[in-house]
Q: What sequence folds into this?
């Protein structure tokens, strides 16, 4: 199974910050990685698909990059509504596997 | 609009069974697979598997083989998750999600609101 390791597990941030979080796959997954945002008490929402493509309606401050084993989600000019847990997911092979999540918290 | 509406919270005793439903609307049900995802309290997301809504074939992740069954009521645009012989560790919120093929990629582009299952004696 492909293990997805996210880092850091949490980040303390301020509004307006630029943050980058990482996701490392235990084997090559091409660009078959999506990023999901989950706010407290809500279901996950798709942000980025195919490693670098912004989904419909996602603000352009969210950027995904990477291929192979290393992936990054960057949020520029962070807004208060971006406080959430972010998960990467690989769908290159079954079983699909999520990373453990990166939680954004206010300083 | 596209919606997945899941059944309400359940409280069960160990050894009992539970059935969670996921009713789809706003699109052609059999054109999109349904995935199931588990989230234990305070924990991350865990992929359980998926069901092909065209032919009803389920695929389970290893940790969810045996006591977990994915099924369909296609005429009602509904996918179901049944868990038998419940254990304390089954306490979680279970999400259904629609999978779309989008821009040459697979995405879970619509999610249910989650169904909470609490297992306690």
A:
């Amino acid at each position: 199974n492909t293990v997805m390791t996210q880092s850091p597990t949490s980040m303390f941030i301020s509004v307006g910050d630029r943050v980058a979080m990482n996701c490392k796959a235990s084997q090559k997954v091409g660009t078959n990685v999506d990023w999901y945002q989950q706010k407290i008490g809500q279901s996950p929402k798709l942000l980025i698909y195919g490693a670098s493509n912004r989904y419909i309606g996602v603000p352009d401050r969210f950027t995904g990059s990477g291929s192979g084993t290393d992936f990054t989600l960057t949020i520029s000019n962070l807004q208060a509504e971006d406080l959430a847990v972010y998960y990467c997911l690989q769908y290159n092979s079954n079983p699909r596997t999520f990373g453990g999540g990166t939680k954004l918290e206010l300083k | 609009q596209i919606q997945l509406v899941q059944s309400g919270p359940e409280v069960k005793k160990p050894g009992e069974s539970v059935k969670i439903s996921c009713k789809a609307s706003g699109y052609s049900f059999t054109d999109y697979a349904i995935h199931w995802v588990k989230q234990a309290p305070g924990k991350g997301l865990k992929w359980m598997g998926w069901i092909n809504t065209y032919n009803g074939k389920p695929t389970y992740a290893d940790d969810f083989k045996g006591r977990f069954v994915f099924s369909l009521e296609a005429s009602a645009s509904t996918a179901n998750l049944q868990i038998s012989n419940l254990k304390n560790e089954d306490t979680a919120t279970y999400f259904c999600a629609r999978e779309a093929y989008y821009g040459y990629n697979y995405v879970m582009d619509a999610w249910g609101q989650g169904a909470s299952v609490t297992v306690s004696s």
